[in-house]
Amino acid sequence: MADELVKADDLAGLLGIQKYDDAAFDAAAAGTAYLPRLQLLTSNSKLCKSGAFPTNHYALVRDQKHDDLGKNVDVLIVVWRPKALETGDAVISCFDPEDAEFVRIQEKSGQKDSGCMCGPEFLVWIPSVKAFATFFMGTKSARRESANVKARVTKSATLGSQLCKNKKFEWFAPECSACSTPFEMPPKALLMETVEKFNNPPKSEIEGVSENEESAARAR
Fold first, then answer.
1. Cα-based torsion angle of the residue sequence 106, 107, 113, 119 in order, rounded to the nearest 10 degrees
2. What is the pTM of this model?
3. Mean pLDDT over all residues of the chain?
4. I need a labelling partner for 17 at 20 to 30 A (CA). Which of 44, 129, 166, 177 fits?
């Protein structure tokens, strides 16, 4: 007698509850050591210009996916590190201020449309999504506010936005204030593991290129 075939509608009931949760799936699907990043998307961003993302909202960015966290987001400011970033065909991140590559990118960051930024990068815990993320304050406007973020290290904070002006333009930049809303803290083991990795990055990271192209970029 042939075995009875499983009916599609019965499959979920036969297998029972999924063993692993969504957090485990996200970690496995990411397949990378990179943390997601927290970013304020303003009217200058392509997503906001196209109408695909609300203007002056914070996004949790994983690869090409942008999750809307709203106009204000409560976070725990954990630690910070220096960072220099160069964008282009390859994305180069440097974390050692004494390294020549860091200095090169830092010097270029003062040039218009150079694709280079430099400033403090913070490790934050976002309780609303129960995730750690990096928050890079590499623009001139963001750096002006970064001291207020640094003052909240090991404390909770609410990140919002503020209007900036000069004689010709108006734009929005991050703003940091104290958070009065209690929230769930991260698990201790995960916190210590994430801080250890954040505090001990390689001198530089190169993304978006092949291994051969990365070796050539490092050798230049």
1. 20
2. 0.79
3. 85
4. 129
